[in-house]
Design a protein that fits this description.
This protein has about 180 residues and is an alpha/beta fold. It has one domain: Rossmann fold (3-Layer(aba) Sandwich), CATH 3.40.50. It is about 30% helix and about 35% strand. A 5-stranded parallel sheet has the order 4-3-7-8-9, sandwiched between helices. Strands 1-2 form a two-stranded antiparallel sheet. Helix 3 (about 35-45) crosses helix 4. The radius of gyration is 15 Å and the shape is globular. The structure holds adenosine monophosphate. Adenosine monophosphate binds near residues 59 and 128.
């Protein structure tokens, strides 16, 4: 299945979760075995050199786990606060209104491991930027971040580039 054949499985839902947002819904893609498998393969083709995959809660876990299984890499999970049972390290980051936090098990990243970051959607880049900061704080190196799709008008790619991370996405939407 080509990217053009996968594209129709990405559904746009207007005004979710709030008015004015075009939500890019990947559940039809996940629900089609051929489309999900081809998406995972396309992500793997663009993954470069890395030792471990880090998926961002929650939809980054889906694509991260699939890629980990395809490639035989381990999966690190980057979680919302209070979810991980063992000793954690965290990073607080600013949102448009308020702030949020991501956490990682303190021992999740072997020193110097090359970590490939993955999430479903790159929007403003705030979440991915925070995950990169946290993975580096944990001792890893991060050079590339993979996304199923990127909302180009929100300029997340520039934010990751400024961190020395190359963003790679399969699909690009204006916003
Ligand atoms: P950001 O930190 O702004 O890059 O937002 C990234 C996170 O929000 C990703 O984990 C996405 O799952 C989610 N997200 C943001 N905007 C959208 C959108 N328009 N459609 C689907 N998911 C989105």
């Amino acid at each position: 299945m080509t990217l053009d054949q996968i594209a129709p499985y990405i559904r746009t839902v207007p005004n979710f979760p709030k008015p004015g947002i075009l939500f890019r819904d990947l559940t039809p893609l996940l629900g089609n075995g051929a489309a999900f498998r081809a998406t995972t393969a396309a992500l793997s083709d663009r993954a470069g050199d890395y030792d471990l995959i880090a998926g961002i809660e929650a939809r980054g876990f889906l694509f991260g786990a699939a890629l980990a299984q395809l490639t035989g890499r381990g999966l690190i999970i980057v979680r919302k606060p209070g979810k991980l049972p063992h000793t954690t390290i965290g990073h607080d980051y600013a949102l448009e209104y308020g702030h949020d936090r991501l956490e990682l098990h303190a021992d999740a990243v072997p020193a110097g491991a090359r970590v490939l970051l993955i999430d479903d959607v790159l929007a403003t880049g705030g979440t991915a930027e925070a995950a990169v900061t946290l993975l580096r704080k944990a001792g890893g190196t991060v050079h590339r971040a993979l996304f199923v799709l990127e909302l180009v008008g929100l300029h997340g790619a520039a934010r990751l580039n400024a961190q020395g991370v190359e963003p790679v996405s399969l699909f690009r939407y204006p916003a």
